[in-house]
Specification:
111 residues; mainly alpha; 2 domains; elongated
Length: 111
């Protein structure tokens, strides 16, 4: 907050007051002062929902207000969309799965 206060020329107490007001009004702000990667999943999802209908200009403005990059929001959006997707196996996992299938088929034939 101190860095933002200095950059914008706004007193720190004013920034904290605004933040508290936004939190009480259910506006999207990080749950803590942690880095952007420290946003909770709920905060990220709320921001993704809030910005879903934004055009590039609106998204950029929203990101500037929160100190984010639009790429971060895009990654969060993609993560939300992929949340229930079928997991993709790595080559090693695929080979292990094929090996187990072969062993299972041998056991079925023997059994």
């Amino acid at each position: 907050m101190a860095r933002i206060s200095e950059e914008l020329g706004i007193q720190v107490i004013t920034l904290y007051t605004w933040r508290k007001i936004w939190q009480l009004q259910a506006e999207v702000v990080p749950a803590s002062e942690k880095a952007h990667d420290g946003w909770s999943a709920a905060d990220k999802f709320t921001l993704v929902l809030e910005t879903a209908g934004f055009n590039a200009t609106e998204l950029s403005a929203c990101c500037r207000e929160r100190g984010l990059l639009s790429d971060q929001v895009s990654r969060w959006r993609q993560a939300a969309q992929d949340a229930n997707a079928k997991p993709v196996l790595t080559m090693a996992e695929q080979m292990e799965l094929e090996k187990r299938r072969g062993q299972d088929q041998c056991e079925i034939k023997v059994g």
